[in-house]
Amino acid sequence: MRYIAFFRGINVGGKNIVKMADLKQMFIELGFGEVKTYIQSGNVVFSSVEDEKSLISAVSEAFEKRFAFRSAIIIRSAEEIEQIITFKPFDDAEIDYARNQDAEVEHEYIYLSDETIDKCRVMQLCEGFTGEDKIYIAEREIYLLCCQSVRDSKLAIRLAKYSTPMTARNLKTMKKIAEIL
Question: Is the pTM of this model over 0.85?
Fold first, then answer.
């Protein structure tokens, strides 16, 4: 089965530096097939016959041993990625409005978790938010539509306080990963 492993917080702001060639080699040494990396943020496409839980355990252990720090690792199958990128929680008018606010940045993001999202907890984190950004909470993903850079999004800041480790990728990156898969 084809999978993608998303690593959280590597190669961001000059911290937790991991060369993609080293990460790729680690996956090869673990016995996975068809290993490819995409951009420096820690996206590894690979093949395995193991299930997601076993993969997370093996990859987490090998990563910490090799790179001497921990990174949350979220794994999705090729089929799940296809479902994630084809799902449209925001209508065209909402997306166009966001893009018109700042055409220079990405506006659609997907937060990935390895656990079911606690919708009540997310809604508590977002309580009182009065900006124009929007979220949609799925089972293990949160979709975010920003009207400005994600770095300036007050809603993204609130989502970062969610207690379960998540990692986010923009929709453009997710579509490219789907092509690689």
Answer: yes
- For 12, list phi and psi in degrees, rounded to 5: -115, 125
Question: What's the pLDDT band for 57 if we cut at 50, 70, 90?
Answer: very high
Considering the domain architecture, whether residues 58 and 127 belong to the same structural domain is answered as no
Q: Which residues, including other chains, have CB under 8 Å from residue 54's CB and lie 6 or more apart?
A: none
Q: State both tokens at 99.
A: 């893009």
Cα distance between residue 32 and residue 29, in whole Å: 7
Read off the tokens for 107: 């506006």
- 161: domain CATH number is 3.30.70
Which domain, by its residues, includes 57? 2-82
Terminal-residue alpha carbon distance, the chain: 10
